[in-house]
UniProtKB/TrEMBL annotation, chains A, B:
InterPro entries: NUDIX_hydrolase-like_dom_sf, NUDIX_hydrolase_CS, NUDIX_hydrolase_dom. Pfam families: NUDIX. Belongs to the Nudix hydrolase family. Keywords: Hydrolase. The lineage of its organism: Bacteria, Bacillati, Bacillota, Bacilli, Lactobacillales. It comes from Pseudolactococcus plantarum. This is DNA mismatch repair protein MutT. The keyword Secreted does not apply. The keyword Calcium does not apply. PANTHER family: ADP-RIBOSE PYROPHOSPHATASE (PTHR43736), DIHYDRONEOPTERIN TRIPHOSPHATE DIPHOSPHATASE (PTHR43736:SF1). Residues 33-170 form the Nudix hydrolase domain. GO terms for molecular function: hydrolase activity.
DNA sequence: CAAATAGTGTCTCTAAGACAATATACA
DNA sequence: TGTATATTGTCTTAGAGACACTATTTG
């Protein structure tokens, strides 16, 4: 008697089932292509601004539009590994700290890509050190854009040459950006990992520049109150007790703050 | 001269590009199968306990183990639509409020499924009303398990017949459950959507039963302090000013609380 | 020594949380 | 009338945030 599907699924051993499974043809099942998109944040020390990395698309679809760094996931890697790989390809920086990259979520609308069924796993990366982007394999050039907020409190990304609004972005990257900013904002009290763009140690004024993009309450903070109410008793951040050496600017020496680990 | 890939990608119109794209064979690209897994929470009014819905697997792989409600995503639906569909199939309840279902994230380790490359988009559902599970298509029976915490503060799920620990779960569902509890806990101040298992209106004692599973601070709350410090000034919750009618138990009438919308 | 900048000290006020007192319903 | 249960009221205290003052560096 021929052994059937039901036999392997419920009667056979798991090893026997798996051996049978691999002999079957599952090609008729529809599957989506899987990509990752990565919203890479960096803090430019030259002008002390928080920036994001965008790519100008040279090919269809969305030719001429700007997009997040992204690419296809290989069958041997997780989505996070793919996002890490793409980040290194684009910047040369090899992220090793898990807390510098978050998964934001899966974007799975079957019509999000005009070509075919392509889902994307969105990530946010808090890059450090800050580097100039490298030319990618696909010859698409990436540029750092300063994050700004319009009068209507909408995001816009500025480069000396041009300004990019959320509606100028390719695919559903507007939704990805909004979800990322929302997540960072909501997580600020639990873990202010966005500050990892500043490196292991940092000063309060730079931290405030970064945090103001995510919560307006930081606009009113003096640096003193910031350290008192946000850094002290923060399970993630701490005051080193040290002060910055060799400042290039006038003013009182700056406290050095850091992540606890 | 034959028009090549480069022509369509960079010279042609987008419509022309898409028409060409569909004529190409992309079958050689590796793609993952996509599933959803859904951690369904419910509040059983008969014993006033927070419960989750688990399925006992009757077939390989992980035969005999318990698992979250899940299934494959169709090419015409988003992951959320698939999770909603599976929820209705399993419970008969049709969730219409977006806030009753969250996406937790994508689980994409290529070895998470022993059969082949199968990723899963995890969801959490705050089911209401509470109903007995229906027999699914695949004749797997679902059961409600009470959420408990061991002395080591580890989760365990209890049914009159049996106890299920996190390590008893199929696939990487342990990681999905942990990520879900973490997310709910971290979001508690932003949006206590887990309370939607109680319905539109609810009383403080039931809310505390639910919230205690996610933050130990609620163990020390009196119901009075709970309303004062958590419900009042909460942008999501409010006090209706009304009191419960026709109580079956002795005691002072209970305040009726509710979601603001 | 003036300007710039950020840390330090002080004060006010709100709100969290502990706990006692009170209100309502059942038996 | 006693018991169960939850609300209401009171008190204490910690900490958020405003703001004035002080310390350090540049030029």
């Amino acid at each position: 008697m021929k052994k059937d599907k039901r036999y392997y699924e419920t009667k056979a051993s798991e090893a026997e089932y798996l051996a049978w499974y691999k002999t079957q043809d599952w090609g008729s099942y529809d599957k989506p292509a899987m990509t990752v998109d990565n919203l890479i944040f960096g803090f430019d020390p030259s002008d002390e601004q928080l920036k994001i990395l965008l790519i100008e698309r040279k090919a269809h679809p969305f030719k001429g539009k700007f997009a997040l760094v992204g690419g296809f996931v290989e069958p041997t890697e997780s989505a996070k590994a793919a996002a890490l790989r793409e980040t290194t390809e684009e910047t040369g920086v090899r992220i090793t700290d898990n807390r510098q990259m978050w998964q934001i979520g899966a974007f799975t609308d079957p019509k999000r890509d005009p070509r075919q069924w392509i889902i994307s796993i969105a990530h946010a990366t808090f890059l450090y050190p800050f580097v100039s982007p490298q030319a990618g394999d696909d010859a698409l050039q990436a540029k750092w854009f300063t994050i700004t907020h319009t009068a209507e409190n909408e995001l816009a990304f500025k480069h000396p040459d041009e300004t990019v609004t959320l509606d100028d972005l390719a695919f559903d990257h507007k939704a990805i950006v909004l979800a990322t900013f929302k997540r960072i904002k909501e997580s600020l009290d639990v873990t202010p990992d966005i500050l990892r763009v500043l490196g292991e140690t940092f000063i309060s004024t730079d931290a405030l520049v970064v945090l103001k993009h995510f919560d307006t309450k930081f606009e009113d903070y003096s640096t003193g109150n910031f350290v008192k109410t946000y850094v002290k008793n923060n399970p993630i951040l701490m005051d080193t007790g040290l002060f910055e050496q060799n400042p290039q600017k006038p003013g009182r020496p700056k406290k050095i703050l850091r992540f606890r680990s």
